[in-house]
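Quick bug: Copper amine oxidase N-terminal domain-containing protein output formatted oddly.
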Amino acid sequence: MTKSWTRFLLLAGALVAGTAGNGAASSAAADGANGTDGASAPRLTGNGKPELDPGFGYYTHFTSALAEQLFNQSPVTAYLPTRLPDSHWQYYGMRSQLTGDGYILTAYRSEKALPAVAMLLGAGGAGEPKASDVLYRLAAGSAAEEGLSVPPSAKLLQSGDAAGWKFWSTGADAGLEQQLSSKFAAMVKAGAPVSGAAGTVLVTKAASGKVTYSASWTNNGGTYYSFAGFGSLEDFVSMLTSFRPVVNLLDSADIVLLPVDMQLNLQAGRSEMFEPYENRFVPLAQAPIVKDGTAFLPLRDIATLIGGEIQYVAEAGGGAVYVSQNGWLNELQLRLRTGEVFRKQEKLATVPLLVKDGTTLVPLRFMSEQFGLPVTYDAAAKAIAVHYTHWSTNSVVPPIGSKADYKTSVLSIGGPPFTYSNERLGSGASWGYEQQKPPVGYNSLKYQLYKVGVDLLPGDNAFVMRDMQTKRVIDSIPIKTTITAADVPFRTDGSFFADSLKVELKLTSSNGKSWPSGYAEISAGASVDITGALKGQSFDSIGMDYHAGNLSSKRVDIPLQDGKFTYRLTPNKGPGTYEVTLYSPPGSVPGMSGVSPLVSFVIVVPYAS
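Here's what came back:
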């Protein structure tokens, strides 16, 4: 899908009112590359592996080795869920093997921890699980029948014709049918449960009261996938909508930037917690406590496991605990005597605290309100689930760029929820993106594949990705360029007057050197003479400012005479890269009091060698 480029001008906006991850792999792509053809070298990560969906392929997840095996050995494209069913405080076990035209997999609960090799394809050392321990079964192949065999007595509950799915039940009473109809109707609002596939769901209630949830789907009418869940309806729906193909995502994009979901399961009185995706139990300094209906968690254990740090400091009036997250030291101060919570000097809240055997326990809402962590509490079971997300990134971005307008492709979740920039131009520099269709199996309502463009300069650059909300850097990819000063243009991206105004500019250093285009280099304390002419608009003046990293100058007005001007600019923010922008005068945009950027260029003051 081709669309015109859209510019995000974060500081010099189109209308300005008034004023980790892993390192880049070998470069199989060139500027603007997107995917490979059959003759290209494999686009693998820096450690020579495919980049699989982090839901099952993240290196700490117990499913990662099996997923890599399926990628390399399955005769058909494998599908795996990125969500796990409830194991009821037991370990997960898996038995799987290849078949002549696909594979079969059984997941079950186990009282004992199984070594990773026992869950690989064809490993049978753990033995056949008991039927009561089976959590789900999964199979793929060229089935003789097309999908599930729906009995004549089954009742059609929901027909998601637009999504290509039908939902049936058999043996269900009226109450269960109503529950199923409501759940499935909500499911298909977001599209097909398995994106890009047509399928069938069958819910069977046996005379014993046991309910089995089954699904079958196909992408091409040749290979069929079947999935049967033996747990709750919530687990079935969560898992069915989480299936993703086991494919190398670097074949679709130069950069893969996806969330990694983590979960911590705790229970009042239990001195260890369970990490489902890692399939391990972790001892706690103190078991969670429920007091007066409120659940309390051991602060140090939770903070450490989500990548934070905790430090006790003795202070006047009682000690305090400083809690950080993702490397932000002393982000929160928790005063142990009063329960007051501060960020810097701002009081955020007061929370009740418990101290048992020297361990500080905080209420659930402290974790959700102060760290934004989704936390759920089952009062009946006194069970707590803490959810935590971080970013996984990998890339095959070429380390050398040959164009000033650098384009690469990114597969990520919708939004886009990130900003992109050249480190030399600062986080406020302009960038653009062109949306495309994500890979098969990835719902375009959640996932996006888009080409991203940033401006490069001669010499060393870095392609920086930031979280749009927190402004934190997710990854920084070094890029050298072969371009020269003559290759950097005067840029007119985002101008309201782009079609009606022609701007002619010339940059001359104070030492008399004339620069061929939109890039100049000067020594510290030197100046640049800017000579220009505007044709197509009758402005009396224009505005000008510059940005150097996160520093900005005041905007100055430059008078025009017959559309021409001359201005001497002396950058005074020290060594660095200055992005200079010229603006239309206030009120020049019809119906608005703001201004529009006209043209921008770059002046570099090198650091002393």
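Actually, after a second look the formatting is fine. The longest strand covers residues 255-267. Closing.
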